[in-house]
Structures are given as structure tokens and as C-alpha cells.
Amino acid sequence: MSGTSVDGIDCALLRAAEDKLLLEATLQYPMPGPMREAVAALSHSGDGEIERLGVLDRHLGQLFADAANALLESAGVPAAAVTAIGSHGQTVRHRPPSGGRSRSDSFSLQIGDPNSIAEITGITTVADFRRRDIASGGEGAPLAPAFHVAAFSEPGVSRAVVNIGGIANVSLLRGTELVAGFDCGPGNTLMDHWTHRHRGETYDAGGRWAASGECQPALLQRLLAHPYLDLRGPRSTGKEDFNLDWLDGVMADFPGTAPEDVQATLAQFTADAIARSLRDSDLQVSELYICGGGAHNDNLRARIGDALPWVRVADTEELGIAADWVEAATFAWLAMCSLAGLSGNAPVVTGAAGPRVLGAIYPGARAIPTRS
Ligand SMILES: Nc1ncnc2c1ncn2[C@@H]1O[C@H](COP(=O)(O)OP(=O)(O)OP(=O)(O)O)[C@@H](O)[C@H]1O
Ligand SMILES: CC(=O)N[C@H]1[C@@H]2OC[C@@H](O2)[C@@H](O)[C@@H]1O[C@H](C)C(=O)O
Fold it and tell me: Where is this region: Disordered (predicted)?
């Protein structure tokens, strides 16, 4: 899995045991700078797009294969012992129906050639998880809520699971029922970009820079007026909606604001968008489990806790999967569903016409019977 932060490739090795998935090994594999830049460049229209897309698709596929091989080597597990790789790919464009597109014009594009992954690793690879959901009228995202309910629900307990990656998404669980799931808005993406611009670092470690500033109420209100936050029903978003160009447009009305105060305000904006998702729901949850890189941002966590004082905030690690590996585990689980012919989407979340088997299967070398 490589997410919207493009901060590296999250690799997780899972074993299916009875009704549980056990996390056996993990590895974060770096993405070279030029490739990160190529991903960023492809996230908006530009010259030579098709050529660049074709080449980056191949390069990412090869990099994902190297990452999978490195994980297996570090875990001492032979490729022959692995049933399948689930590869999310790298999202380069997400244009869902909730963004105002007609259903027939909606699309979501993930790249990282699965043929190359199957070829290099020899392991059957499942990929392209979003497009069947889109084809059936859905958002194609978020897909994690179906996994959250499978991995983190508990009879009789109402809880929320929030993934704070580049974008944040939430799952609301009433016991073992998935009541709702959607992208709540920005995760770390705005804070990351602002930090990079003003401090040259890729993220605000622990949220310490945000903690040194003061939230600016007028700026916060303007940020909270982003139309995405007023959408209801199935909804998903991306860097298409929350990016530096949009922020710069807002900041034009707030000249002279100290950069650390902007960072504090962005942290509050992110926390409020998450808190609002829980507050607006008919389901009153008593527990909130955080996953994704934002789990390491103490300042952001404190702001979320302050906005929801009746909710106990904890990490998904308590429920068996550490915060950094939930997304990668999601796509291992989705690959398992695909191979078993089971649906992977949650229509209540994506708005798809019904349950669908997600993903396409690219058989590994040893899975190919010889023609007689
Ligand atoms: N120690 C830390 N302190 C603060 N923030 C951190 C820390 N470690 C990671 N992060 C944040 O987590 C981000 C990466 O999170 P993650 O890997 O979950 O995102 P992603 O999977 O790329 O995004 P998405 O879920 O939107 O696809 C980093 O860009 C950074 O903002
Ligand atoms: C199109 C796309 O890649 N969306 C990501 C992104 O990152 C978080 C949020 O936006 C979520 O909708 C999704 O990822 C997770 C894995 C999901 O589908 O649940």
C-alpha cells in the first residue's frame, strides 16, 4: 500500500487463522525521491501525461515487487509460502460521484502494474480494488470500513475507527454492524505541505510545531466552510479537494498570519473535521480507535480528545493491529475476499448498487497450469 502521503510503501504479511488475521511481519520500504515527485506531478493534469503514467505504472509495479520481496526476506518467509499479494497501488486521481461527477464519468485511478508484481515475485497478485465499486455506482472509497468491521468490531460496543493518513476516513460501528463510513476530510496532508514549505521537513513530528502556535478562530471558520464538510451520504475525497492551492486561496484573506499559527489552525481544522463526523452521527460512540500515521501526532490526538470529551481515544494496536499497518492489512484482507469470491465493498459506505467482489487476479508463476 502506498497512500496519499506518498511517504513510502507499507508492507504487511498476514496469516489467516480461523476467523482472525494475524500480523506476522511488517516493513516500510522507501520510495525514491524522483518517484515521489513523479507521483505528485501526475496527481494533476500536465504535458505528456499518458507517457508519464505508463512509465510510472511500470516503475511502481517493480518497486512494489521489490518491497514485497524485501518483506519476505526480512521475515525469512519463502515466496512459495505466500498465497497472494493484495496491492492497492498508488492513487493518482480520484473523481468520485460525490465530487459532482455523473456516475458514468466517475473514476478512480491507482497505478503500480500488478503484472510486474506477479512476474517479479512469482506470487499471485490481486489489485484494482476500487473500480468495480465505482462501476456499480459507488464512490470506490473508502474501502477500509469493511475491514474495520471485520477486524475491530465487538458485539454490544459502539465504536469508531479513524484512519488519519493524508486524508482521514472514519468507520462507525454499532456492535458488529457497520452503520456508516466515509472520508471526513483532510488528515495530515495540509499540515504536511505547510510544514514542508516553512520548515523543509516532510511532517510536523509529534505536532510540536502546531503546539507552538495558536489556532486562529476566523481562519478556522473559513477552513471549516469547505463544501466537502457539508456533504452527506456516501462521500470520499482526496488531494484534489484539500491541497496547498486551496489553502493559499484561503490564506490570501489572512495575510501576515504567523506560519506556526497557521499550522495550529490546520491541526484544529483536521481535528474538528474528524470530531464533526462523530458528532453529526445518530450513533453515539464511546470509543474512538485511531490508525494511520496521524496516530503519532500527539498534538492532533489531544485536539481530537478535547473536541470529543465523552469518547475514549486509543490506538488500534489495542485491538490487535498497530496503527501503521491497518491500511496494508486492509488490502491483504481484500485480496483474501477476492480469491474466495466474497464481496469486499460495503454498499452502505460507498453507495454501490450492492455487494461486489473487488479486484482483479494476476496469477503468479507457479499458479499457471501448463497447456497440454
Ligand atoms: N511521528 C509523527 N508525528 C506526526 N505525524 C506523523 C508522524 N509519523 C507519521 N506522521 C504522519 O503520518 C503521515 C503518513 O500517514 P499514513 O502512512 O497513514 O498516510 P497514507 O497511508 O499515505 O495516507 P492515506 O491513508 O490518506 O492513503 C505522514 O505524512 C505524517 O503526516
Ligand atoms: C482514492 C483513495 O486512494 N483514497 C484513499 C485516501 O486515503 C484515505 C482515504 O482517502 C480513503 O478514502 C482511501 O484509502 C483507504 C485505504 C480506503 O479506501 O479506505
Answer: 87-108
Low-confidence residues of the chain: pLDDT under 70: 367
Looking at residue 131, its amino acid is R
Distance between CA atoms of residues 11 and 1, nearest Å = 7
Q: Are strands 9-17 and 20-29 parallel, antiparallel or unpaired?
A: antiparallel
Which among 236, 270, 333 is the best mutation to test ligand 2's pocket, defined by most ligand atoms within 8 Å of the CB? 236
- Quote the CA–CA distance of 104 and 123 in Å, as a whole number: 34
Residue 128 marked in a binding site: no
Beta strand 85-87 with 125-127 is parallel
Residue nearest (by alpha carbon) to ligand 1 atom 27: 3
Which of 142, 53, 123 minimizes the C-alpha distance to 344?
Answer: 142
What is the 8-class DSSP label of residue 18?
T
DSSP codes, 57-113: HHHHHHHHHHHHHHHHHHHT--GGG---EEE--EEEEEE-GGGT--GGG-EEEEES-
pLDDT of residue 365: 83
Cβ atoms of residues 87 and 126 within 8 Å: yes
| 114 prior amide bond cis, ω within 30 | no
Please state the pTM of the whole predicted model: 0.96
Give the whole-angstrom CA distance, residue 177 versus residue 184: 20
Identify each DSSP E strand in the chain by its residue range: 9-17, 20-29, 85-87, 90-95, 107-111, 125-127, 158-164, 167-174, 177-186, 287-291, 312-315, 360-362
Structural domains present in the chain: 9-140+325-367 (3.30.420.40), 144-324 (3.30.420.40)
DSSP three-state, residue 115: helix
Ligand 1 within 6 A of 187 CB? yes
User: Is 9 assigned to a binding site?
Assistant: yes
| Grid cell listed for 344 | 469486499
Q: What is the pLDDT of residues 204-259, one digit of tens each?
A: 999 999 999 999 999 999 999 999 999 999 999 999 999 999 999 999 999 999 99
Other residues' Cβ atoms within 10 Å of the Cβ of residue 371: 4
How many angstroms does the Cα of residue 149 sit away from the middle of ligand 1? 22
**ipTM for the whole predicted complex goes beyond 0.95:** yes
Rg (CA), the chain: 20
